[in-house]
Amino acid sequence: MIVEDVMSINPISVSPGEFVTKARELMRDHGIGSLPVVRNGRYEGMITVQDIISITSTKSDVTIDGFIRRNVPTVELTTKAEEAAKKLLGTTEGRLPVVIEGGRLAGILSIVDLFDELDELGVPDLPVNEVMTRKVIVCEPSDPISRVWRNMTEFGIYGFPVVRASQEIIGMITREDILRRGYVRFERESDKTRQSSTVQMIMTTPAITIPENESVRKVATIFSSRGIGRLPVVNGKKLAGIVDRYDVLRVCRRLMAVE
Questions:
Q1: Global pTM?
Q2: Phi and psi (nearest 5°) for 206?
């Protein structure tokens, strides 16, 4: 399997001269955290939510050019999927530009694209508690959405379990939940309004969870069928850890064989 077999074609992109406000609108509307930057069809780099989070609406004339990440790894159409996945695991952008001759952008490879072909990568039959992250950042229903958003941006995590004081999990809140509902529009001057908006207003309940003795293969199936990227792992009703798409990819047999 090669990149051409699984990549997404005709990706949404922006140009260096466009305003940052346009980039963040696209990210919000399409639920993505990064965009390729293209000039005259040629790929120049990537721009991410983290790059533009500090730009306020009073600076609406700021252009994308000064925020381009130019060192993001790229792949080619014929790159083996497992090699591309290995590169993807080493990035913070979550997406790899696919370039062809002349530096032109042919598509985008994301972790979601790879999950459509997981069988090819050899998902192991391991229990989730061997691959999950045990130290989990959580939030409570009464937490301000503004604080949760800042934590997502600071830690580069796109979803938090919502728990009671007893660590009983009651829901999930994701970056897409916040962006889609418009509670955070990126502008810092709206902080006062956001402080009055709490997690319980937009969190998803009940949370989809997985017991810690369940198999990684089962987790991969849930990710693909439900279109989600993170699952809280529970021991009874209490939170024991969290597992995401990256955890699953890291233990795939064919990826581990790539030098």
A1: 0.77
A2: -75, 160
